[in-house]
Amino acid sequence: MRYAMVIDTKKCVGCSDCVVACQNENRVPIGYCRDWVIEHAKGTFPNVSIELRSERCNHCENSPCVRCCPTGASHYEEGGLVKVTRHECIGCGACVQSCPYDARYSHPDGFVDKCTFCHHRLQEGKLPSCVSVCPTECMYFGDLDDKESKVYQLLQNRDWKVLAPEVGTKPHVYYLI
Amino acid sequence: MNEEIIISGRMNPKIDPVLAIWGWEIPLYLFLGGLAAGILFFAALYTILGREKELPTAVRKATFLVPAILVIGLFALFLDLKNKLYFWQLYTTIRLESPMSWGAWVLMLVTPLSIVWCVAYWRDLVPNWKFKVEWLEFIEEQVNKYRKPLAWVMIVSSVILGIYTGILLSAFNARPLWNTSILGPLFLVSGLSTGAAVIMCMSKDHLERTLFSKIDLILIGIEIFFIIHLFMGFLASNAAQIEAAQLFLGGAYTLPFWGGVVVLGLLVPAILEIMELRGKKIPVAFPAFLILLGGMIFRFIMVDAGQLSKYLY
């Protein structure tokens, strides 16, 4: 099993609903967030284009954060999820430095926190909260090893990209372009 | 034109607007760790070479500073942790892939080693001293008996400690400024140079002082050579590393680096040492202080600037 999130940048309107849903679902402390929306504008008028991306931890296959963690608190879970065991984290900051996406932050309670793909919801057979609330349904979640899954089909039929592939992290969040 | 903005208002403390998760604690430790490694390296080296009698400061006197330096460094590391009371979890696992795990374990080896080394030379500092506890005398006896093998262990572990201070940073591929393998050797040489400076400063013996003055000159030469290579490597690399190098080539860190580290911390002390070796009277504390200051500034700006460098996507 290989969990993946596929986000359609052509359908995203940048409403930030995913951000609020995550903050609610995961009781993210005020002033912090595990996911965020980027507006990427390029070109010179009149040849301009805008891309909207909902970004979060990429649950990389080759995670630098798991590699550099000195206590083993950052680890892989079933399906390639990258998670932090709170009571093993000493808050040294190495994983924060190691993430090219700046997806991790230091939780005020003394551990490092980030997106979990809502692992607790997956175990109940639900979708991650950001995916479930998206009003334009531009986010998809599923198993890449399952050829029938929507995420697999989309990546077969559409052009896509991942963020900073040159760092060699093999991200599991894909953007349809 | 390219513009990228976060429209959802992400403002995670210490992550936005620029990464600053590591403050003064880590660079201070990197400096102190390198300094301790430098002093221990020379003590072990000249013990192995059998020159304890000629070089009393390098082999004995300077090493008394090391436990104190390491304890301050360890305390700085401890302060950096966000979950301080869980620090012991570093010692419930060995993670070969994680530089920080290596560092924690090496410190666990080097710190007691340096204390034991000092215990065995304690009578040099306080003659006719009587250890109140029996096992301290036992340690002293054993260390004096196995001094050479101990020196071998110490020379290897001090090199690992010194090089680790650089590898800790270079292992982060997300930060282009750190992600270069020359950083390990560069930090090691810089650490050895600061160690030599302390020995030079403490020594009252002319012969020893000239020897460490010469050693320091060679180390400064190697350091400058490595720094040139560092920037050659950056400029011949990918866009992210070229951008990172700009921090030092016209960017915010240009003056502190070239003025503070290269000129004040390397070139000026090198000139002063050459003048001294040629017979001019120069207070030895002056070049030594500049080398130490330069080494410290170097670590602080490398840690700071590295956190500003990132991949562009």
Automatic annotation (TrEMBL), chain A:
Residue ranges annotated for the 4Fe-4S ferredoxin-type domain, each copy included: 3-32, 48-79, 80-109
Pfam family, one: Fer4_11
Keyword annotations from UniProtKB, A to Z: 4Fe-4S, Iron, Iron-sulfur, Metal-binding
GO molecular function: 4 iron, 4 sulfur cluster binding; metal ion binding
CDD domains: PsrB
Record PROSITE patterns: 4FE4S_FER_1, 4FE4S_FER_2
Record PANTHER family: PROTEIN NRFC, PROTEIN NRFC HOMOLOG
The protein, known as: Fe-S-cluster-containing dehydrogenase component
Organism: Marinifilum flexuosum
TrEMBL record, chain B:
PANTHER family: PROTEIN NRFD (PTHR34856:SF2)
Species whose genome carries this gene: Marinifilum flexuosum
Protein name, UniProt field: Formate-dependent nitrite reductase membrane component NrfD
Family named by the database record: Belongs to the NrfD family.
Membrane topology according to the record: Multi-pass membrane protein
Keyword presence, Lipid biosynthesis: no
Principal location class: membrane
One Pfam family hit: NrfD
Lineage: Bacteria, Pseudomonadati, Bacteroidota, Bacteroidia, Marinilabiliales
Transmembrane spans: 26-50, 62-82, 102-122, 150-170, 182-203, 215-235, 255-272, 284-303
A Gene Ontology cellular-component term: plasma membrane
Localization (cell): Cell membrane
Domain of life: Bacteria
Annotated keywords: Cell membrane, Membrane, Transmembrane, Transmembrane helix
InterPro entries: Electron_transfer_protein, NrfD-like
